[in-house]
Input
Amino acid sequence: MIKTSDGCDYPDDRLYYVDHDIWLKPAADRAYRVGVAKPFLFYSGRLSRITCRSVGSFIRQNTSLALLVSSRMEGALLTPFDCKVTAVNAAALSNPDIVSEDPYGDGWIVEVAAEGPTPRLLEAAEASKAYELKNRERGVVCLDIVPHYEIKVFGETCESILSQVGDYMRMHIKQGETLHVITSDPATEVDMISWAEKTGQGLLEIRRVGKTLHVLYRRLV
Amino acid sequence: MTYANPQVLTDVEWVKQNLGKPGIAIIEVDYDPKLAYEQGHIPGALLIDWRKDMNKPDVRDIIDAGEFEKLMSRLGISNDTHVILYGDYNNWFATFAFWVFEMYGHQKVQLLNGGRKKWIDSGGELTKEVPAVKPATYKVPKVNYENRVFLEDLLKMKIADPNLVLVDVRSPAEYTGEITAPPEYPNEHAQRGGHIPGAVNIPWGQAIREDGTFKSAEELRQLYSSKGVVPDKRVVTYCRIGERASVTWFVLKHLLGYKDVKVYDGSWTEWGNLVRFPIEKT
Output
C-alpha cells in the first residue's frame, strides 16, 4: 500500500489507469477486476446509485462499464480498452455504500476480459506519483471516510463559517451522517475544534493541505 | 397519446447514429463542468458552463440577446445549426438553456432525453477532448418573452387572474420551509423558507422515470391534472433559481402542449428574500 501526502492510498497488488480514475486487478490472462481509485470519491462524494452494463456485453474503449451517481455527479466508469463484462458486483449495486467505504476491496464494480490491445497500465508506485501531481492541481484530498455531504466556505470570517456549518448540519444532516467542510481561512483550525466540543458534534478528522483546511464532522446530536 | 411537440426531444440512439454529422451541434450544459464535462463528454460536444455562460456576471439575470449572439458565435453555432442540449444534474441546466434558446428564437433545438446520465448508462462513448471551433455569425431574430415572468407581472397576475395556477416544483421539504435549499447547493439560500401562497407542490422529478427520461404523455397528463394543473389554466412554474422550474415548463409546454406556461426564474431566492411578502408553509 502506498500512501501519498494528500491522504490517498493505492494498494500495490494491482494496476491503475489514472486518466479514468480506475484500478484494475489482474485475475487471469487478460482478465481484470475493476473499481474506482480513491481520488474519484473526492469528486463524486458518497455514491447513491450504481448501474452496470450487463454480463456478456461487449464494451468499446472509452465507453462506460458503469454509471456512478451521487448527489452532485453523474459519473462514468470508463474502460481503457475493448472488453467483455464477465461479472458485476451485485452487492455494490444494491448497496453503493460498499464502494464508498471499501473501494479497493468489497467495493469493486465489475470484472472484464480484455478483447483488444490494452494501453499501458501503471503500477501503484508510478500511479501514486501521477495522482499526487493531479490531486495537488485539483485540490483533491482523501479523508478517512467518504463524507455524506460537503460544504465549501471561502473568504469569510470564522464566525460566519461556523454559523453556516451549524445551519447546514441542522437542516440537512441526519444523526450519524458526516459533513466535509472545506475552507481557506487560516485562523479557523482552533475554532473548528472548539465548535465541535461546544456543540457536542463529532470531529473525525482535520487536515491542512496547502492553504486549504479540511474538517470532517459527524452529527451526533 | 403522444407528446404534443415530439420534435423537441431526441434520444441516445439518434445521437449515437449522428455523431460528427455537419450542421449538428451537441452542447453539454453543466452546473459543475469539473465533475461532468471535464470528466468526459459526448465526442464533439461543446460546453456551456451554466453559471458563467448563461448568466450575467453583475446583475442577476440571464444573458441578453447580444450576449447570446456572442456565446453562439464563440461556440461556432449559426442560426440554422441543429442544436442538441444535454447536461448534468438530471438535465436541469440543459433544460434551462433550452428555455433560453427558445426565448432568443433559435429554430432547431432539441433536448437529449435523459441527459448525461442516460448517455453514460446506455454505453455512449465519452471523451475528454475539447473540440476545435470555428467562430460563426449569429443573429437573434426576435426576443420572445412569453415564457418568462418577472416578479412585478406575477403579482399583477396573482391579483387579477383567477385562472392562474402556480406550480412549486421543489422538494416537499423546501415547499414546507423545512430547508431553504437542497443540500448540494449550500450557498444559495433564501432568508425564509416556505412557498408562494396558493402554489401547488409537484416536484419536478415526478415527471421523470428512474432512468432520467420523461414519463409518457398519459402519465404526465394524469400527474398534473390530478393537482388542478389543466390545459386551460395559465401556469407559472418556479423553484429556487429557475432551473428545475424549466423542466416542468418543458413538460407542460412541449410534452403536454399547454398554451400558456411561464417560468418565474426569480423563484424562491427572490420571493423568500423579500421584506413583508406573504409566505405559506402548508
User: Anything to note?
Assistant: Chain B has a mean pLDDT of 95. Residues 6-121 of chain B form a domain with the Oxidized Rhodanese; domain 1 fold (CATH 3.40.250.10).
